[in-house]
Each structure stands twice: as C-alpha cells, then as structure tokens.
Amino acid sequence: MSKKPSYRINERIRASQVRVIAEDGQQLGVMGTVEALKSAREKELDLVEVAPFAQPPVVRIVNYKRWLFEREKQKGEASEKRSELKELRFRPNIGENDLRLRARRAEDFLQAGDKVKLTVVFRGREAAHPELGLEKIRLITDMLKEFGKMEKEPARFDRGYEVMILPIKKSA
Questions:
Q1: Residue 97 domain-assigned?
Q2: How far is residue 171's CA from residue 153's CA, in Å, rounded to a whole number?
Q3: Cα dihedral angle (136, 142, 145, 146), rounded to 10 degrees?
Q4: 28 part of a folded domain
Q5: Final residue belonging to a domain, choices 50, 79, 108
Q6: Per residue in 87-144, pLDDT tens?
C-alpha cells in the first residue's frame, strides 16, 4: 500500500507569501497567497504548493488532477526495467564445475529478466570437433530450462556456436 503524496492546494496553503510559477514554467515572483490564488482562479486552474519548506514556499498554477496524473506517469516510466542482453562465453573444453558456475550466473540474469547469449568459442584445433561445443551448449541449456527458453536452436558462426536464451515470465 503506497501512500500517495499530498499537496496543499488553493485555500489550504497556509503561507502568507509564496513564490509563484505559472503553468508554462515562467516564474511570476513572490506575491501574497490571496493574490496568487486570485491569479489561478482567473485562469480556471489550481494553486499547488510544490515546495512547502522553501522560503517562501513555492507554488505552481496548474490543473491539479492533470498535474498529478503526469507525475504518476513519469514515475511509472522511470521504474520500468529494460531487459538487457548478457553474454556468457566459454570454450568447448570447459570443466564441469565451471560450466555449472556459468549456468548459475545465467540463471541469475534470467531471473532478473535479462536475455542471455551463450557463446562457445573454438580456438585452433578445437574447431576440428564442433560437436564438443554443441554438447556444452546443450548441457547448459538443459540446466537453465526452468528459467529460460531457447529463442532458436544453437547457430554456428565462424569460430563457434551461439544461442539466445529468453527469460520465462513467472505468472504471479
């Protein structure tokens, strides 16, 4: 239960002098609260206290409901997480424990909502046995099957294999 911020508006503003900001962002200067309220009423807008602890308090002339909506919308956009692409690279002769460690790392990325790109890189004579690299990719994707799914089958590129794993959305 999130507490909505409460702002003093119109007659609830207690200060006798306020610094006024117009709806277009222009500063109108310091004036009496009654005068600022009269100015807001003429424009059929509200007087909202945005910085109550400033000397003198800062108020804005705005449409209060619309202003609240815009602020909530901005907060929502700021909190949305963009998924990132994380790449884990390894060689075909990687040890079993090191492979498990990479799988655990990929699991963390997938749970955070990130895509994971697994890449097996061949060097020198390792390229003579591409089936070893494919086997390692299959092992690690099997370890991750409850956290993510392969976008498509592992693809061969000039020096190895790569596969993209997408996070599985958890139903709440």
A1: yes
A2: 25
A3: -120
A4: yes
A5: 79
A6: 999 999 999 999 999 999 999 998 888 899 999 999 989 888 888 889 999 999 999 8
How many other C-beta atoms are found inside a 10 Å radius of the C-beta of residue 17?
A: 13
Residue 110 near residue 147, CB atoms below 8 Å = yes
Q: pLDDT class for 70, splitting at 50, 70, 90?
A: confident
Question: Is the residue at 5 inside a domain?
Answer: no
pLDDT at 1: 45
Whole-model pTM over 0.90: no
Cis peptide upstream of residue 56 (ω within 30 degrees of 0): yes
Q: What angle do CA 45, 50, 52 make, to 5 degrees?
A: 125
Whether 53 and 74 share a structural domain: yes
Which residues is 86 bridged to in the sheet? 116
Residues contacting 99, CB < 8 A, separation 6+: 90, 136, 139, 140
Please give the residue range of the domain that contains residue 130.
Answer: 85-167
